[in-house]
Design brief:
This protein is α/β, with parallel strands linked by helices. It is built from eight helices and eight strands; from the N terminus they run βαβαβαβαββαβαβαα. An eight-stranded parallel β-barrel has the order 1-2-3-4-5-6-7-8, surrounded by five helices. Helix 1 packs parallel to helix 2, helix 1 packs parallel to helix 8 and helix 5 packs parallel to helix 6. The longest helix is centred in the first third of the chain and has 17 residues. It starts with 10 loop residues before the first strand and ends in a 9-residue tail after the last helix.
């Protein structure tokens, strides 16, 4: 895979405690990093801010140890509290422009791209990378609009130069095509969090990513 210098993190883990079925979520995170995960996003939906901060701080001890960037989903308060590398927000969260105004906010802002018209939104000037969400519908992403698929991802690659992170239904069977369609990074949830061997799963996924690259085509 040709690494995008603006987002040199091809294997992206999205983790939450509830998605880790077989091992402690912190063990999953560490084993996944050892296996090849390049960046981690903590995505906790049903806890208090103080609980979220506590989880994020504990995870950041691990990510800092391995020099892995940590992204916080949704919460600017949590991202600031733990000095996270980045924050990722969706359409119903705080806007990228509001994050940008906050001097304490992380400098790396990710935004979920759900409909094509967002590319013309004024918010785009404050966005560093885009979460193309979802590529395929999944149980972990229920409040979405567009299912992009391979063709949609390839189309987006021709319309924006911002790094594209593919999320939603990513696993060993489809990430080769995802990379070939234009993803700069592949966001994994269940294929690592639900694995009995997160290290091995991460190794396999990383190998597939490394063996493939973008093949532009006309749509």
């Amino acid at each position: 895979m040709k690494i995008n210098p603006n987002f040199p993190y091809p294997l992206y883990l999205v983790i939450s405690k509830k998605d880790c079925k077989n091992l402690s979520w912190l063990d999953v995170a560490e084993q996944a990093i050892i296996g090849g995960v390049d960046i981690i996003q903590l995505r906790e939906k049903n806890c208090t801010i103080s609980e979220y901060i506590s989880k994020a701080a504990t995870l950041k001890e691990i990510t800092d140890h391995y020099n892995i960037p940590l992204i916080i989903n949704d919460s600017l308060e949590v991202a600031i509290a733990v000095n996270a590398w980045g924050i990722h927000v969706g359409q119903s969260d705080i806007s990228p422009s509001e994050i940008h105004k906050n001097q304490q906010a992380p400098k790396n802002i990710g935004w979920s791209l759900e409909v094509i018209k967002q590319l013309d939104d004024q918010e785009m000037k404050y966005v560093d990378h885009l979460g193309v969400s979802p590529i395929f519908s999944t149980p972990t992403k229920t409040n979405t609009i567009t299912e992009w698929g391979f063709e949609g991802l390839n189309f987006l690659k021709t319309k924006t130069s911002k790094p594209l992170i593919a999320i939603g239904g990513m696993n060993e069977s489809n990430i080769a095509k995802i990379i070939q369609a234009g993803a700069d990074s592949v966001a994994i949830i269940s294929a690592i969090c639900g694995s009995e061997n997160p290290k091995k799963s991460a190794q396999i996924l990383k190998q597939i990513i490394n063996e493939n690259e973008y093949h532009p085509k006309t749509i």
